[in-house]
Amino acid sequence: MEDDKKILVVEDSDVQRAVCIDQLKQIGFTNIFEAGNGIEALKILKNTAIDLILSDWDMPKMDGLEFLKTVKNDSSLQNTPFIFLTVHDNQSKNHEAMVYGAVDYIIKPSSPGDLKESIEIIFKRGIRNILIVEDSELQREICIVQLQQIGFEKITGAANGKEALKHMENNPVDLIVSDWEMPELDGLGLLQAVKDDPKLKDIPFLILTVHNDPEKNQEAISLGALDFIVKPSTPDSLHMKIRKILY
Question: Fewest CB within a 10 Å sphere: which of 92, 96, 137, 226?
């Protein structure tokens, strides 16, 4: 675990905040900042480059969800990974946090093991190489931003399958996220080329498609895609699919 990472713990309960900080120290972190609510946290973020935010949901003055929205609406903060600490064992409520850009949530009371597993996953994302293959420059940029919002840093874009294959000749790739319909070499053609190449065949492959047709999408699965995402995608849908594939 990287003990030089700066972690901000946002929790209104002094006891719960102290418990969380103690657990972080147990797993090797030393640069830990603390705040009692979202407003206090924003003041810290203004002056300190934070690598990860752990935030309670129910807090006075500014609760966790409003704090998350504020962070994600600030261009200087929006790529900071955000994990919710919550007592809400409610899938739909926790799903709301993911929709707004949280990368994970942990049900309280948490254990050092829970924290360690979730944090390790988040920080590993920074070293994963993701290749986005999409002929629409706008859609490509949207996808890159969404991946940045959920903690990925090494993201490369390609406009079609040919560009993607050229990139992979000399660059390592841990995951391919590819559009279906593209000029020169489309998504299925790229998928087939990847699976036919002994050096590339084990790279996980996600298809982005406008085809909300299980039978058509099954074609990609049968060729070796691990899953598909129906466009327009959201950070939440990308997060869930990629987490399942890479972790």
Answer: 92
pLDDT band of residue 3 (cuts 50, 70, 90) is low
Domain spans in the chain, listed from the N-terminal domain onward? 6-123, 126-246
Q: 126-246 in CATH: which number?
A: 3.40.50.2300
Cβ–Cβ under 8 Å, residues 173 and 150: no
pLDDT tens digits for range 183-219: 999 999 999 999 999 999 999 999 988 877 778 788 8
String of DSSP letters for 83-146? EEEES---HHHHHHHHHTT--EEEESSP-HHHHHHHHHHHHHHTT-EEEEE-S-HHHHHHHHHH
pTM to 2 decimal places: 0.68
> Matching CATH topology for 6-123 and 126-246?
yes
Task: Tell me if residue 10 falls in helix, strand or coil.
Answer: strand
pLDDT tier at 153 (50, 70, 90 boundaries)?
Answer: confident
